[in-house]
Design brief:
Blueprint lengths: L18 H35 L4 H7 L3
Length: about 70
Protein backbone atom coordinates (compact mmCIF):
# COMPACT_ATOMS: atom_id res chain seq x y z
CA UNK A 1 0.00 0.00 0.00
CA UNK A 2 1.33 3.44 -0.92
CA UNK A 3 1.33 5.92 2.03
CA UNK A 4 2.89 8.89 0.22
CA UNK A 5 -0.31 10.42 -1.18
CA UNK A 6 -3.44 9.82 0.90
CA UNK A 7 -6.42 9.34 -1.42
CA UNK A 8 -4.27 10.32 -4.40
CA UNK A 9 -4.08 13.99 -3.40
CA UNK A 10 -0.84 15.88 -2.99
CA UNK A 11 -0.21 17.35 0.45
CA UNK A 12 -1.19 21.05 0.44
CA UNK A 13 1.55 23.58 1.03
CA UNK A 14 1.58 25.37 4.38
CA UNK A 15 1.11 28.92 3.14
CA UNK A 16 -0.40 31.52 5.47
CA UNK A 17 -4.04 32.33 4.77
CA UNK A 18 -4.31 35.69 2.95
CA UNK A 19 -5.48 38.42 5.35
CA UNK A 20 -7.52 40.28 2.73
CA UNK A 21 -9.40 37.09 1.84
CA UNK A 22 -10.05 36.39 5.53
CA UNK A 23 -11.42 39.93 5.97
CA UNK A 24 -13.72 39.53 2.96
CA UNK A 25 -15.01 36.21 4.32
CA UNK A 26 -15.63 37.76 7.74
CA UNK A 27 -17.57 40.70 6.20
CA UNK A 28 -19.69 38.34 4.10
CA UNK A 29 -20.41 36.12 7.12
CA UNK A 30 -21.49 39.19 9.13
CA UNK A 31 -23.90 40.28 6.40
CA UNK A 32 -25.30 36.75 6.16
CA UNK A 33 -25.75 36.57 9.95
CA UNK A 34 -27.57 39.91 10.03
CA UNK A 35 -29.87 38.81 7.21
CA UNK A 36 -30.62 35.52 8.99
CA UNK A 37 -31.30 37.35 12.27
CA UNK A 38 -33.74 39.71 10.53
CA UNK A 39 -35.57 36.83 8.85
CA UNK A 40 -35.76 34.85 12.10
CA UNK A 41 -37.18 37.83 13.98
CA UNK A 42 -39.80 38.41 11.28
CA UNK A 43 -40.84 34.73 11.31
CA UNK A 44 -41.12 34.56 15.09
CA UNK A 45 -43.02 37.85 15.28
CA UNK A 46 -45.45 36.66 12.60
CA UNK A 47 -45.97 33.35 14.41
CA UNK A 48 -46.49 35.14 17.75
CA UNK A 49 -49.01 37.59 16.28
CA UNK A 50 -50.93 34.73 14.71
CA UNK A 51 -50.98 32.82 17.99
CA UNK A 52 -52.12 35.91 19.90
CA UNK A 53 -54.91 36.40 17.37
CA UNK A 54 -56.02 32.80 17.99
CA UNK A 55 -56.20 33.56 21.73
CA UNK A 56 -53.02 31.88 22.91
CA UNK A 57 -51.43 33.29 26.07
CA UNK A 58 -48.06 35.09 25.72
CA UNK A 59 -46.38 32.69 28.18
CA UNK A 60 -47.46 29.70 26.12
CA UNK A 61 -46.24 31.36 22.91
CA UNK A 62 -42.87 32.06 24.53
CA UNK A 63 -42.57 28.39 25.56
CA UNK A 64 -43.46 27.17 22.08
CA UNK A 65 -40.93 29.54 20.53
CA UNK A 66 -38.39 28.38 23.13
CA UNK A 67 -37.73 31.95 24.28
Amino acid sequence: MNHEKPYGRPKPSQQPFPRDLAAKIARKAEVMAQRFEHQAMEQMTKAARSALYRGMEPDQIARELQL
